Amino acid sequence: MKKKIFLSLLILIGLFAIAGCDTKKGTIVKVIDRKNTSSEMTLNELVDINDSNEAKFDEYYVGSAIEFEATIQKIETNTAVDLGGCTKATGASNEITFEEIDGVTIVLALEKNSYNLSEFNKGDKIKVQTNISNAFINNEGEKYLKVASYDGPRPSCNFGKTPTTITKK
Question: pTM here?
Answer without folding.
Answer: 0.75
